Amino acid sequence: MSSLFHPDRIARLRQKQEVAFAPVFLHRPLSILFLIFTADIKAITPNRLTTANILLRLVAAWILWPEAFGGPETTTAHLWLAVFLWHFGVVLDAADGALARYRGQGSLFGRFYDKVSDRLVTLVMMLMLSARAFAETETLNYVFMAMVYVACMSACSVAKWIELGLVAEKRGLQKSEDPGEVAAPERSVGDWARFLLKRLPHIVIVTEMDLPIWGSIAVLTGTESWLLIYLGIYSVIYTPLAIGVRARRIWKLDAEPETA
Fold first, then answer.
1. pLDDT digit string (tens) for 44-89?
2. b/e for 176-198, b at 16 or more Cβ within 10 A?
3. CA torsion angle for 110, 114, 115, 120 (degrees, to 10)?
4. What is the pLDDT of residues 200-209, one digit of tens each?
5. Angle at 54 between CA 52 and CA 56, to 5 degrees
6. How many Å apart are CA 29 and CA 22, to the nearest integer?
7. Among candidates 163, 176, 179, 167, which has minimal Cα distance to 256?
8. Can you say whether residue 172 is alpha, beta or left, with left for phi > 0 and alpha for psi between -120 and 50 degrees?
9. Which tens digit of pLDDT belongs to each residue from 157-200?
10. In this structure, are residues 53 and 212 in contact, taking their beta carbons and an 8 Å threshold?
């Protein structure tokens, strides 16, 4: 058992430092805990974890689909089961990349599979949330807000991956990580406290990685419409800022000398 928690092994599982609110405070720690006991099981592979997390989240979406539109009966037990599956799926989504880095098994297909499926699953979950709001209010505005959020987050994702490709091309790299990502450092208790306090204000930033927390709260409290209003307003403010930051980095990249 002690070898499972060896500092070197834990460090290999913590090769990436997340910055978004939900991964920092919930999903990333749970994914590391999951991998502590499973990372060396050969039958568990990164791509299988990706497949499992897709299926879990799709099942959650089906359970939460409004009964008025052909979904299953809505009960408190069903709501909690769906929320559990949604979050467990996200934990596995965080674990697939960590497992690939831990084993040195990262692949181009794995990255493609993971990122494309994330976009599609986000679309499904937003459709579910907007359908629940529409079933309750019979107002199409909430569907519109959901589509605005999906479109804006997709634009941010496209900007990110274009930047990664340009960075790799400019610097002659075979693969490139997000320029904003850093390796997870060793921290003392005080360092962890300071780090977490700095991340707390990010609670208002609802990226696709944060959606499970606020989506599940909205489902359990029946406030899907309020969440969709916030997401619609938030996304049209956040998107130009996020894309602008990447555009500025790409502008600076143009000034770098060519790599031989």
1. 999 999 999 999 999 999 999 999 999 999 999 999 999 999 999 9
2. beeeeeeebeeeeeeeeeeeeee
3. 140
4. 999 998 999 9
5. 70
6. 10
7. 167
8. left
9. 999 888 888 887 777 655 545 555 567 888 889 999 999 999 99
10. no
The residue behind tokens 């489902």 is 219
Q: Are 137 and 68 in contact (CB under 8 A)?
A: no
Buried b (16+ CB within 10 A) or exposed e, 100-116: bbbeeeeeeebbebbee
| Pairwise CA distance, residues 44 & 96, whole Å | 9
What does the DSSP assignment read for 154-173? HHHHHHHHHHHHHHHHHHT-
∠ Cα 100 105 107 (to 5°): 95
- 133: its two tokens: 């709001």
CATH hierarchy code of domain 2-254 = 1.20.120.1760
Residue 86's DSSP bridge partners are none
Residue type for position 93: D
